[in-house]
C-alpha cells in the first residue's frame, strides 16, 4: 500500500485555516496548563492551611483524579477524536484503569494482616 | 533477501543464520511451534514420571524432593513454555494471513519476543543441571518459595521474568497488528474468530503480565536482597504474592483457552461446511470472557480466609463466566447441526473437544461454589478439573490445528490415518487419566503428594490413571512420528487444501511467498475466500491495489543478541547472593550487551527494503510455475 508519497503546496486558504486552528489549539493548551497549576496550588494550599486530615486526603485525591483526566485528554491528546484508533486507545486506557482499581480495592479490603 | 527467496539451494550455515536473524512471521511461527513442542515433550515426560511414581502405593521410583521439582516444572513448563508458544506459533503463522497483512506490525519485536521466551525457557531448564529445579509448585506460593533452599526458585523467578517479557512484547505486537494492519474491507465485524480471540488474548496478556512481573520482582528482591514483602515475621504478607500471582494467573488461563476457542471456531465451520453460527455473539462472548477473566482471581483463594462477602462476590462472578462460555459451546453445536460434516482429523479433535471442555467447565462451576470449594480445595478433583480444561480444551486445539494448518505452514499435509490413531489413543488416554481423578479427589486424595498409603481405596484408580498417562504419551509419540514422516512427503503446492476454506489464509497458494499476498486483497464480507469462491472467482481474492513494489523489513541478529544479554545477566543475578566475586561483573556484562544492542538498534537507521515488481513476478513463477499465482 502507499507506494508513492505526494507533496502538495499549501493554498492561502489552507494556510490561514491552519494558523487559526493552531491558535485555538494553543489557547486551549495554555488554559489547561493554567488549570493544572491552579489545582496543584490548591493541593498545596489545603495542606499549608492545616485543615483536618479527613478533609485534606479526599480533596487531594479528587484533585489528583481531575489532573489525571486532564493530563490524558488534554496533554496526551485523547480528546483528539479524529486521531486514528482513538476509540481503541480509550478502551484500553480505561479498561486498564478499571483493572488497576480492582487491585487497589483488593489490597485495601480483603488482604488481612 | 529477495533473491535468496528465489534460489533454494542454501547451505546449512546460511539456513541457520536465516532462522537466527529472521523477522518473518511465518518462520517465527514455525520456530514457536518447534520450541513449544520441545518443551511440551519435556513437560509431558515429567508428567509421565510423576504418574509412574503414583502408579502403585508407597512407590520409591522418584524421591519426594524430585517429585516436587517434577510437578513444579511440569506445570510451569506446560503453561508458560509449551501452551503459550504453541498458540503463539499459530497466531504468528495464521493471523497476518487471515487479515491480509504482509507481516506483523513490529517484525523486529516479534523476533525479540521469540528469543526472550526461548532463552528464558532454556535458563529455567538449566536449573536441572545447576543444583536443582524450582520446587514450590507452578504457583510458587511465597510461604513455600521463600524457604526453598538452593537456587531453584531463583531460576523460576529470573527465567519467567525473561520469557514473560517476551510474551508481553508479542502480545502488544499482535494488538497493534490486528488493529492497524487489516486489509481494506476487513472491518472488525468481518475478522475471523481466530483473529478476534488473538486480539482479546493479546489484550489480556498486556494487562495480566505486569502484575506477574511485579510479583516476580518482589519475590526476587525478597530472596536475593533480603527484602520482606512476603515474610510475615517481618511485617510482610505472604497473601500478597497469592493475589499478585492469581491476578495474573486467572487471566493466563483465558490467555491460553481463548486462542483455542478461536482455532476451533475456524476448524468447525470449515468441516461442517456452514457459516459459523452466531458470529456476532461469538465475538461478544470472547470480549465478555476476557473482561470477566480479570474479576474472578480470588476464587483460587477461597480458603485463605477472604471473608464471606468477598467469597460470595467472587463465586458469583466466576459462575457468570459460564454464560459467555456456554454461548460459545451452543454456537459450535449449532454450526455443526445440519452441516454436511466431514470428519477429518481436525474435526475429530473439535468433536472431542466440545464434551471434554464442557466437563471441565462444569467442574469449574462446582468449584466456584465457595462452600463446596472448601471440600475440593487442594484435592485431586482440582487436578482433574484443570486438566480437563487444559488438555480437553487447549491441547486438543493445538493438535487439531497442527493437522489443520500444516498445509499452510509447511506446504505438506500430516497423515490422516496416523492422525486418527493419534486422536483415539490420546483421547482415550486423556479421559482414562483424568476422569478417575475426580473421584480420587472426592475420596480425599490431596494433590501434589509424592506417594500414598495402600488400601485407602485409591490404589486401583491411581493405577488406571497412570495407564491413561502412558496412552497419552503413546499418542504424542505417534504425532511426532507423523510429523517426521510428513517432512519426507511431497510438497502440496496447492490452494485451499481442505477444499472448504473460508477465510483469507486459504486463498493464498502454498508455499506462501515471504511477502504473503503479492497484492493486498480486498475484503468484501465475512468469510472472504468463501465469498469469492461462491462468485466463481478462480483466483480466490480480488485485489485492493495494482501490482507494485513491496516494502519489507530487514532481518536482524540484534533480537538474539539482546536476549543473550538478558540470559547472561540472569546468571549474574542468580549467583550474587552466594557472594561469588564474578556475579556482579557478569550481571553488568549481560545488561551491557542488551543495552548496547538496543543502542545499535536505535542509532542505526533500518528502513527495510523494497521487493521490486520484477522480483515478485520471478518469485511467483519460481514458486508456482509459469504465470505465477493464478
From TrEMBL, chain A:
<keyword id="KW-1133">Transmembrane helix</keyword>
<dbReference type="GO" id="GO:0005886">
    <property type="term" value="C:plasma membrane"/>
</dbReference>
<keyword id="KW-0472">Membrane</keyword>
<keyword id="KW-1003">Cell membrane</keyword>
<feature type="transmembrane region" description="Helical">
    <location>
        <begin position="30"/>
        <end position="49"/>
    </location>
</feature>
<dbReference type="InterPro" id="IPR005171">
    <property type="entry name" value="Cyt_c_oxidase_su4_prok"/>
</dbReference>
<dbReference type="Pfam" id="PF03626">
    <property type="entry name" value="COX4_pro"/>
</dbReference>
<keyword id="KW-0812">Transmembrane</keyword>
<protein>
    <submittedName>
        <fullName>Cytochrome B6</fullName>
    </submittedName>
</protein>
<feature type="transmembrane region" description="Helical">
    <location>
        <begin position="88"/>
        <end position="112"/>
    </location>
</feature>
<feature type="transmembrane region" description="Helical">
    <location>
        <begin position="55"/>
        <end position="76"/>
    </location>
</feature>
TrEMBL record, chain B:
<dbReference type="InterPro" id="IPR036927">
    <property type="entry name" value="Cyt_c_oxase-like_su1_sf"/>
</dbReference>
<keyword id="KW-1003">Cell membrane</keyword>
<feature type="transmembrane region" description="Helical">
    <location>
        <begin position="153"/>
        <end position="181"/>
    </location>
</feature>
<dbReference type="InterPro" id="IPR000883">
    <property type="entry name" value="Cyt_C_Oxase_1"/>
</dbReference>
<keyword id="KW-0812">Transmembrane</keyword>
<keyword id="KW-1278">Translocase</keyword>
<keyword id="KW-0813">Transport</keyword>
<feature type="transmembrane region" description="Helical">
    <location>
        <begin position="460"/>
        <end position="485"/>
    </location>
</feature>
<feature type="transmembrane region" description="Helical">
    <location>
        <begin position="276"/>
        <end position="298"/>
    </location>
</feature>
<feature type="transmembrane region" description="Helical">
    <location>
        <begin position="418"/>
        <end position="440"/>
    </location>
</feature>
<feature type="domain" description="Cytochrome oxidase subunit I profile">
    <location>
        <begin position="11"/>
        <end position="524"/>
    </location>
</feature>
<keyword id="KW-0186">Copper</keyword>
<keyword id="KW-1133">Transmembrane helix</keyword>
<feature type="transmembrane region" description="Helical">
    <location>
        <begin position="348"/>
        <end position="370"/>
    </location>
</feature>
<keyword id="KW-0249">Electron transport</keyword>
<keyword id="KW-0479">Metal-binding</keyword>
<dbReference type="GO" id="GO:0022904">
    <property type="term" value="P:respiratory electron transport chain"/>
</dbReference>
<feature type="transmembrane region" description="Helical">
    <location>
        <begin position="240"/>
        <end position="264"/>
    </location>
</feature>
<feature type="transmembrane region" description="Helical">
    <location>
        <begin position="304"/>
        <end position="327"/>
    </location>
</feature>
<dbReference type="GO" id="GO:0005886">
    <property type="term" value="C:plasma membrane"/>
</dbReference>
<comment type="pathway">
    <text>Energy metabolism; oxidative phosphorylation.</text>
</comment>
<feature type="transmembrane region" description="Helical">
    <location>
        <begin position="193"/>
        <end position="220"/>
    </location>
</feature>
Amino acid at each position: 500500500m502507499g507506494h508513492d508519497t505526494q507533496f502538495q503546496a499549501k493554498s492561502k486558504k489552507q494556510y490561514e485555516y491552519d494558523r487559526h486552528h493552531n491558535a485555538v489549539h494553543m489557547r486551549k493548551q495554555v488554559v489547561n496548563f493554567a488549570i493544572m497549576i491552579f489545582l496543584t496550588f490548591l493541593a498545596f494550599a489545603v495542606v499549608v492551611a492545616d485543615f483536618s486530615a479527613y478533609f485534606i486526603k479526599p480533596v487531594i485525591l479528587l484533585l489528583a483524579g481531575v489532573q489525571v483526566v486532564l493530563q490524558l485528554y488534554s496533554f496526551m491528546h485523547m480528546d483528539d477524536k479524529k486521531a486514528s484508533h482513538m476509540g481503541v486507545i480509550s478502551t484500553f486506557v480505561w479498561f486498564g484503569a478499571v483493572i488497576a482499581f480492582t487491585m487497589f480495592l483488593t489490597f485495601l479490603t480483603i488482604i488481612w494482616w | 533477501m529477495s533473491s535468496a527467496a528465489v534460489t533454494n539451494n542454501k547451505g546449512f550455515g546460511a539456513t541457520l543464520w536465516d532462522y537466527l536473524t529472521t523477522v518473518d512471521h511465518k518462520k517465527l511461527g514455525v520456530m514457536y511451534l518447534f520450541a513449544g513442542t520441545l518443551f511440551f515433550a519435556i513437560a509431558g515426560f515429567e508428567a509421565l514420571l510423576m504418574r509412574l511414581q503414583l502408579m502403585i502405593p508407597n512407590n520409591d521410583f522418584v524421591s519426594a524432593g524430585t517429585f516436587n521439582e517434577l510437578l513444579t516444572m511440569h506445570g510451569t513448563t506446560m503453561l508458560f513454555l509449551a501452551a503459550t508458544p504453541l498458540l503463539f506459533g499459530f497466531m504468528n503463522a495464521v493471523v497476518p494471513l487471515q487479515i491480509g497483512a504482509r507481516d506483523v506490525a513490529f517484525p523486529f519485536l516479534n523476533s525479540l519476543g521469540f528469543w526472550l521466551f526461548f532463552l528464558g525457557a532454556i535458563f529455567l531448564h538449566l536449573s536441572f543441571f545447576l543444583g536443582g529445579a524450582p520446587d514450590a509448585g507452578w504457583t510458587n506460593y511465597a510461604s513455600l518459595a521463600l524457604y526453598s533452599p538452593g537456587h531453584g526458585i531463583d531460576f523460576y523467578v529470573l527465567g519467567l521474568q525473561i520469557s514473560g517479557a517476551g510474551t508481553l512484547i508479542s502480545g502488544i505486537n499482535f494488538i497493534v497488528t490486528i488493529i492497524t494492519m487489516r486489509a481494506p474491507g476487513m472491518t472488525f465485524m468481518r475478522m475471523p474468530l481466530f483473529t478476534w480471540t488473538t486480539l482479546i488474548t493479546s489484550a489480556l496478556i498486556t494487562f495480566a503480565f505486569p502484575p506477574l512481573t511485579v510479583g516476580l520482582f518482589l519475590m526476587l528482591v525478597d530472596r536475593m536482597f533480603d527484602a520482606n514483602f512476603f515474610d510475615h515475621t517481618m511485617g510482610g504478607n505472604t497473601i500478597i504474592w497469592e493475589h499478585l500471582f492469581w491476578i495474573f494467573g486467572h487471566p493466563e488461563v483465558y490467555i491460553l483457552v481463548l486462542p483455542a476457542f478461536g482455532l476451533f471456531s475456524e476448524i468447525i465451520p470449515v468441516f461442517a461446511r456452514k457459516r459459523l453460527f452466531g458470529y456476532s455473539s461469538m465475538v461478544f462472548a470472547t470480549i465478555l470472557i476476557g473482561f470477566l477473566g480479570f474479576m474472578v482471581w480470588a476464587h483460587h483463594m477461597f480458603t485463605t480466609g477472604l471473608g464471606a462477602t468477598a467469597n460470595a462476590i467472587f463465586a458469583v462472578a466466576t459462575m457468570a463466566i459460564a454464560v459467555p462460555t456456554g454461548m460459545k459451546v451452543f454456537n459450535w453445536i449449532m454450526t455443526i447441526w445440519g452441516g454436511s460434516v466431514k470428519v477429518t482429523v481436525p474435526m475429530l479433535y473439535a468433536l472431542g473437544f466440545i464434551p471434554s471442555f464442557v466437563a471441565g467447565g462444569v467442574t469449574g462451576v462446582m468449584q466456584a461454589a465457595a462452600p463446596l470449594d472448601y471440600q475440593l480445595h487442594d484435592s485431586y478433583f482440582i487436578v482433574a478439573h484443570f486438566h480437563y480444561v487444559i488438555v480437553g480444551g487447549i491441547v486438543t486445539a493445538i493438535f487439531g490445528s497442527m493437522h489443520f494448518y500444516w498445509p499452510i505452514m509447511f506446504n505438506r499435509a500430516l497423515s490422516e490415518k496416523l492422525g486418527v490413531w493419534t486422536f483415539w489413543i490420546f483421547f482415550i488416554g486423556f479421559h482414562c487419566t483424568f476422569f478417575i481423578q475426580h473421584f480420587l479427589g472426592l475420596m480425599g486424595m490431596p494433590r501434589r503428594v509424592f506417594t500414598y498409603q495402600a488400601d485407602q481405596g485409591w490404589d486401583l484408580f491411581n493405577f488406571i490413571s497412570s495407564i491413561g498417562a502412558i496412552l497419552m504419551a503413546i499418542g504424542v509419540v505417534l504425532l511426532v512420528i507423523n510429523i517426521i514422516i510428513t517432512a519426507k512427503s511431497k510438497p502440496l503446492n496447492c490452494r485451499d487444501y481442505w477444499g472448504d476454506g473460508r477465510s483469507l489464509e486459504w486463498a493464498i497458494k502454498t508455499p506462501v511467498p515471504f511477502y504473503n499476498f503479492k497484492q493486498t486483497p480486498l475484503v468484501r464480507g465475512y468469510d472472504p475466500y468463501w465469498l469469492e469462491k461462491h462468485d466463481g472467482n478462480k483466483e480466490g481474492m480480488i485485489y485492493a491495489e495494482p501490482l507494485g513494489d513491496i516494502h519489507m523489513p530487514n532481518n536482524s541478529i540484534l533480537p538474539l543478541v539482546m536476549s543473550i544479554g538478558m540470559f547472561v545477566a540472569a546468571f549474574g543475578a542468580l549467583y550474587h547472593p552466594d557472594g561469588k566475586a564474578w556475579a556482579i561483573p557478569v550481571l553488568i556484562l549481560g545488561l551491557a550487551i542488551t543495552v548496547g544492542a538496543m543502542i545499535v538498534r536505535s542509532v542505526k537507521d533500518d528502513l527495510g527494503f523494497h521487493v521490486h515488481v520484477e522480483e515478485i513476478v520471478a518469485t511467483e513463477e519460481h514458486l508456482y510455475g509459469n504465470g505465477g499465482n493464478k
